[in-house]
Amino acid sequence: MNGDFIDALHEIEKEKGISKEIIFDALESALISSYKKNFGSAQNVLVEMNRETGEVKVYATKDVVENVENPYLEISLEEAKEKNENYQLEDVVRIEITPKDFGRIAAQTAKQVVIQRIKDAERDVIFDEFINRENEIITGQIQRISKNNVYIDLGKTEGILPPAEQMEGEEYNQGDRLKLIILEVKKTTKGPQIILSRANTSLVKRLFELEVPEINEGIVEIFSISREAGSRTKIGVYSKDPEVDPLGACVGFKGSRVKAIVDELNGEKIDIVIWSKDIEEFIANSLSPSKVVKVIVNEKEKSAIVVVPDYQLSLAIGKEGQNARLAAKLTNWKIDIKSESQFNEFQ
User: Fold this and answer.
1) Looking at 229, 253, 275, which one is the last position of a domain?
2) What is the pLDDT of residues 231-265, one digit of tens each?
3) Bridge partner list, 153
4) 305: helix, coil or strand?
5) Are residues 224 and 263 in the same domain?
């Protein structure tokens, strides 16, 4: 071990962001194992590496005792005091036992340890970076597709878009660039596993934050989102500033802002709904694009009967009940939709 090795560690620290101390600690632990493997393991051993020169020294550590029972692990007080007058009972004495050719073993071990430690530390750096970014939006390129899992190149690492987090009806091809949500970051034996999503409602939220400055600045706020990924989303918004129209802010000039989000989501329909403290008004708005004649609410059961014009009943319910379902999710109320003629009969 020499100055070149120390210089190499400096470079690794600079380029990979891996602390030299981490490598030194790992190396010292590995050298203890190497020593025991090559020279026997009956004694307690400590290895120290000089941080400036790379010089390696091996020490046997022994407990200071009155009567020695195991000479490999213990030393008498009398013998310890011969080495240093200050030693007392229960102290630990270090005796240098560095073998002559230990430098060669150390060099071989160092190479293996440094390579492994670089891998481990890079994984840790990646994990630490991404664990703090859960629920953030990220752009990545499709690297490969295997067993319905889509693997996304995120630069320093790879993320996985599992089938459950893919948008229904969306095609994925190698080389495509996508915006995704970092759903979860797990630590595994093979390194960090980054689970991505295109189906999560957070993706819509983050896209609106990117496209609508008023949302990013906190002037317009998102109250709730309900989504059936790949098909349709409803987003409830309101403005803290009476001068700012939340619907206009989200739609943008000639629909430019919402169009950018719809394009990113491959044509997924987006209904922007004005939130209101008046639950009747909010429920009526949530059934957009259908017109609503009246809303009768039951506060206790958090349920509502919504009356719509006869010719708009199918529009209010939506294909396979989707519009009604999304409205119920958006408002968190049970919604029973009736046409005017049905309501008259019901009464």
Assistant:
1) 275
2) 999 999 999 999 999 999 999 999 999 999 999 99
3) 141, 158
4) strand
5) yes
